[in-house]
Design goal:
This protein has five helices and six strands; from the N terminus they run H-H-E-H-H-E-E-E-H-E-E. The strands form two sheets. Strands 1-2-6-5 form a four-stranded mixed β-sheet. Helix 4 crosses helix 5. It binds S-adenosylmethionine. The site of S-adenosylmethionine (SAM) has 9 residues, from helix 3. Belongs to the class I-like SAM-binding methyltransferase superfamily. NNMT/PNMT/TEMT family. One of its GO terms (biological process) is methylation. This is Phenylethanolamine N-methyltransferase.
Length: about 170
């Protein structure tokens, strides 16, 4: 974990707070703009080999997953399987962008303490390779003390860009 906290993440963190002199747009307005652009919301279970319950036609060009797979998987093997399941939704040559927690064992959602599988960087790389992806970029940073809020025990955050091979 050698990268500093990415500037874009700092901006995102600030943008999710209340309006400020530099970002006067309330988060509710951001939410409204995002929802306006959604065309469909599909239920998904990443633990099913067929995560949407039916093949995705046409398959997806890209997949973005943020802080999901490690938060819903009981162990590293389940994490790897979940990654392969969602990867099956991509077309050949499709891209996956993943971000997630490293070394996290729990997070608090209100009074609920939810388990997380603590991942090392190599667990993510191995799972991507095992799911048939080519790893294009991998970055991470260690959680700075200022962002340790007590709602979890996360050590750091990873960002991975991986690609499905084109069919031969
Ligand atoms: C830690 S939250 C992350 C939410 C959001 N992506 C974010 O970054 O704030 C984990 C999410 O996984 C969802 N989830 C739980 N079990 C799941 C499953 N089997 N398949 C897919 N998603 C699941 C939960 O509903 C929750 O929204």
């Amino acid at each position: 974990m050698q990268d500093p906290v990415p500037t874009s993440l700092c901006k995102l963190g600030r943008s999710l707070q209340d309006p400020s002199p530099t970002d006067p747009e309330p988060w509710q307005e951001k939410e409204r703009r995002l929802r306006d652009r959604l065309r469909r919301i599909l239920p998904i279970d990443v633990h099913r080999p067929d995560p949407l319950g039916a093949p995705l036609r046409p398959p997806a060009d890209a997949l973005l997953s943020a802080f999901c797979l490690e938060a819903v998987s009981p162990d590293r093997a389940a994490f790897a399987r979940a990654l392969a399941h969602v990867g099956s939704l991509l077309r050949p040559g499709g891209h996956a962008l993943l971000l997630g927690a490293l070394g996290e064992s729990f997070y608090l959602a209100g009074a609920a303490r939810l388990p997380v599988v603590p991942l090392a960087e190599d667990d993510v790389r191995t799972a991507l390779t095992g799911a048939g992806f080519a790893l294009r970029d991998f970055r991470s940073y260690a959680m700075p003390p200022a962002l340790r809020t007590g709602v979890d025990d996360v050590d750091g955050v990873f960002f991975a860009h991986a690609q499905k091979p084109l069919e031969a």
